[in-house]
Design a protein that fits this description.
DNA polymerase, domain 1, mainly alpha, elongated, single chain, two-stranded antiparallel sheet, three-stranded antiparallel β-sheet, hpI Integrase, Chain A
Length: 341
């Protein structure tokens, strides 16, 4: 049985109801709702559109992440964010929102700094904002750098894998000894090979930085090519590669428990997990930088990786390196022994 409740609306409110119904129908029929002027979202759209042709796709994508996060914040607050309301209270409310929704501190503060960029953009349009009153700390991202040691790379090299995983295994070895991004090493081909005074090198332009790189090939890379009929392995997508190198690392029993940030749904969280489960396509580049740091002059390593500054290069280094720690310990023992003579 269905019960219907009738609501009596006073006759003086009928006109208001008709206007409201008309507005609701208009909104429902209009697929593209215009963003009100003088709102934060309005100026974000303006700024992003004006910069689209001048920035890299990855930067544009990051800006859109900030944009959608601010739209979610509007929904959370149940109100429009007008420029004159973007002040210290906004900062406090947004930080509270981000933490309640379990966003990382890095995401929260990078978004806030982007908002500050928008306020400066608005000021250049002749509109006064509270940008000079905002004191925003720069949140340093505490990021665990996961790398493969040389012993683990050799373990992977010596681990038999099914035929369907062989190409991913070869690419993993190549990436660990060339230090390049997935977007670059996956495009390697024999046409890029050059002979420089009897040494086989590969010449290419990095997609991200547009830098021209001339890189001598490590003996492991040469050995991998020779086993593949002097060809590079077949190409695959980033998703296929990430899935398959996890399987390979699992077959190699890389079961060490490590603490790392792992994406779970739309969030990243600190978890303790087996090493094989956390590796991804960037691990080769990080392993290259870590394993050769301190053994090869940093300037030469930066030429190979394409980093412009040592500060950026050092972000790839795993600070916990047993071999370097043992080397330092040997120096301590040596100096102490000399003083005790």
């Amino acid at each position: 049985m269905i019960f219907r409740t009738q609501i009596r609306i006073p006759e003086e409110d009928w006109d208001k109801l008709r206007v409201l119904s008309s507005e609701i129908r208009e909104i429902c029929n209009n697929n593209q709702i215009e963003t009100p002027e003088n709102t934060l979202i309005y100026y974000m759209e303006w700024y992003i559109d004006s910069r689209q042709e001048m920035i890299r796709p990855s930067t544009y994508k990051r800006y859109k992440v900030f944009y959608h996060l601010l739209k979610r914040f509007e929904g959370f607050m149940l109100k429009r964010l007008y420029i004159d309301a973007v002040n210290a209270d906004f900062i406090n409310d947004f930080v509270s929102f981000g933490r309640e929704e379990e966003y990382s501190e890095n995401t929260i503060y990078r978004t806030i700094h982007f908002v500050k960029t928008i306020l400066n953009f608005v000021e250049r349009k002749g509109i006064r904002t509270a940008v000079r009153e905002l004191e925003i700390r720069r949140e340093k991202q505490q990021k665990e750098v996961v790398t493969l040691t040389e012993e683990e790379i050799i373990k992977i090299k010596n681990t038999p894998v099914p035929e369907e995983l062989q190409a991913a295994k070869d690419w993993l070895l190549i990436s660990c000894y060339t230090g390049q991004r997935f977007s670059d090493f996956m495009q390697f081909n024999t046409d890029q090979l050059k002979d420089i005074n009897g040494k086989t090198c590969i010449s290419f332009v990095q997609q991200k930085t547009k830098k021209k790189i001339l890189l001598p090939l490590h003996p492991t890379v040469m050995d991998t090519l020779q086993k593949n009929n002097n060809e590079f392995p077949r190409c695959m997508t980033n998703q296929q590669y990430n899935e398959q190198i996890k399987q390979i690392a699992k077959l190699a029993y890389l079961d060490e428990l490590i603490k790392a940030r792992k994406r779970i749904g739309y969030r990243t969280r600190d978890v303790a997990t087996k090493k094989w489960d956390i590796i991804s396509s960037h691990i080769g580049r990080r392993s290259f930088a870590t394993n050769f740091y301190g053994k090869i002059p940093t300037a030469l390593l930066m030429e190979a990786t394409g980093h412009s500054t040592e500060q950026m290069f050092l972000k790839y280094i795993n600070p916990i390196d047993n071999e370097r720690i043992l080397c330092l310990s040997s120096y301590f023992d040596k100096v102490h022994a000399e003083r005790m003579r």
